Amino acid sequence: MPLILLTRPQAQSEAFAAEIAHDGWRSLIWPVIEITPLLSAPPDLAGVDALIFTSARAVEALARFGAPPPLPAWCVGPATAAAARRAGLGPVIAAEGDGEALVAALAMADGRLLHIRGRDASVDILGALRRAGRDAREVVAYAAEPGREPEARVGAAIAAGEAAGVALFSPRSAALLAGPP
User: Fold this and answer.
1) What is the side-by-side strand order in the sheet with 163-167?
2) Closest Cα partner for 17 from 6, 2, 7?
3) DSSP, res 107
4) Least C-beta-crowded within 10 Å: which of 58, 84, 174, 177?
5) For residue 67, how many C-alpha atoms fall within 13 Å in the half-sphere facing its CB?
6) From its phi and psi, is residue 102 left (phi > 0), alpha (psi between -120 and 50) or beta?
7) What distance in Å separates the CA atoms of residue 45 and residue 58, rounded to the nearest whole number?
């Protein structure tokens, strides 16, 4: 059975490992990113007409305070949209998987918008909305911090060339795995 290195946060890597095990893959987990919640209370949703999410982690950060109101959720892509549906948001609108596509899709959104996001962003959604004259604000709900050093067995498998591949789900994960330039 081929071996693949999984680099997502622990819980997401474990879920992905279970999925790919059905296809005959063995996995080693080395979370190169760890998610740190930053909200100590739910954000104020008074007057908000729709929510914007650029990651499933942002949906999870909101949902940890209980069921959110059933507001429309504009999501960057299908995985984030699935998380929004599981959280009870709706209707859920998914863009094509990147920030630029989401900004373009938001031209159809009505009312006051709240972007719930991670600390690091590749696209300035709020800036783009404000430049377009939209009523929008944002809440930073979590941070994606560099993960811990790999366990000895992970380092040994990498050194021995045992891994047939590495699953990377973000440019930031790839950069952290590669190390300093």
Assistant:
1) 26-29, 3-6, 163-167
2) 6
3) G
4) 174
5) 7
6) alpha
7) 15
